[in-house]
Amino acid sequence: MAAPERVVIVGGGVAAQRCAFALRKRGFDGELTMISAEAEPPYDRTLLSKDMLRGARGEPCVPLQPQAAYAERAVDLRLATKASGLDVKAQRVALSDGTELDYDRLVICSGGRPVLPAALHCPGVLLLREVTDLEALQAKFADARRLAIVGGGFIGGEVASSAVSRGLEVTLIEAASQPLAAVLGEEVGARVAALHREKGVDVVAGAAVEGIAARDGGFELTLAGDRLLQADGVVVGVGMTPAVDWVEGCEIRIDDGIVTDANCRTEAHNVLAAGDCARWWNPRYETLMRVEHWDTAARHGAAAAAGVLGYDEPFAPVPFFWSDQHGVKFQSVGYAPDWDEIELEDGEVPGSFVARYRTQDRLVAAFAAGQPKTIARARKDIQASGRQEVEA
């Protein structure tokens, strides 16, 4: 591959930021442009539903790097600008301001956007993905008494934790039998639900929301079985979808994200992808994966920089993520789309525990509440086991 002279990165999240800075660290000295749809320089999204929502931080958002750092590294950071089209043959990106950018390498880090099913469409319903969403949710915290959260995943759980700590009456609604049951199993999900209830959250599980309507300055939610629930505010957190509409119809394979090889390269010449929008081949697990967590996105962006420069450095991480809820740190490591057994072990502190997921007597994943040292050991064991398989 000829060395690129012009690299364009589409995205303003951690994957895009890490890619840009890694390129400079690896010695790339050509033109480098980042296109971000948001008005703020890249910031830490993980804090939106954690510290900042609880009001623990005064600043509107926490930058990944000071804005001056981009100028110091000669990164042309274009804010409040969207990529609107792509011509892979001409190697050109169309932008929302009417201009176009030519590239030698393009890295797509356009992330994802919250899913809002048609049944949940209603003016005033809130989502949480960007800092502008945070501002709307903080305002709702200030003037609401009863908050309904649709979706018992990690974002929903974090919002519930923050809301109840601010004195709101909170109902957490989950369509599955337990929060997080699909990814962690019934018994672990039940323990997560028990923590919420202990802290004052009304957890309604096994009840899909079939509709939301505005009523008397608030909302009325219709649950399966014709159960009605009233709330002053509604937050929906039922998943994410890759933000890749702007490249549909191009010579790029899209299947639950932009499909790439282990080096972040797509089927389109000189186009790479990383972060939440990408579904890449992970040689550690010999499967395509898309992981919507900060740690993976950060490392994925740095891996894309290697791919841009032509290095053969397969991206084969052990997924890791964390969540803070009600003062308890949840941590997960590994990859277990299914498992043979779950081994549960309580910790010394009440409410703390670790769940170990095994397949054919081999540890493949672990999830813990308030057990950071246990997770650190599990992470080392899983990485060591996987490394042998990758090298075999």
- Radius of gyration, CA atoms, in whole angstroms: 22 Å
Strand tally, please?
25
At the fourth level of CATH, the homologous superfamily of the largest domain is FAD/NAD(P)-binding domain
Spans of at least 5 consecutive residues whose pLDDT stays below 50 are: 387-392
Q: Secondary-structure blueprint of this entry?
A:
Elements: E1 6-10, H1 14-25, E2 31-35, H2 51-54, H3 67-72, E3 75-78, E4 83-87, E5 92-95, E6 100-102, E7 105-108, E8 112-114, H4 131-143, E9 146-150, H5 154-165, E10 169-174, H6 181-184, H7 186-198, E11 202-205, E12 209-215, E13 218-223, E14 227-231, E15 233-236, E16 240-242, E17 258-260, E18 271-273, E19 278-282, E20 287-289, H8 294-308, E21 320-325, E22 328-334, E23 341-346, E24 353-359, E25 362-369, H9 372-391
Summarize the structure in short:
25% of the residues lie in helices and 31% in strands. It is of the alpha/beta class. Mean pLDDT is 94; it is low at 387-392.
Description:
- The chain is α/β, with parallel strands linked by helices and 392 residues long.
- The protein folds into three domains: 6-113 and 240-308, FAD/NAD(P)-binding domain (3-Layer(bba) Sandwich), CATH 3.50.50.60; 116-236, FAD/NAD(P)-binding domain; 327-391, Enolase-like, domain 1 (2-Layer Sandwich), CATH 3.30.390.
- The chain has nine helices and 25 strands.
- The strands form seven sheets. Strands 3-2-1-7-18 form a five-stranded parallel β-sheet. It has a five-stranded antiparallel β-sheet with strand order 21-22-25-24-23.
- A hairpin with a 3-residue loop joins β13 and β14 (227-231).
- The longest helix has 20 residues, at 372-391.
- It is globular, with a radius of gyration of 22 Å.
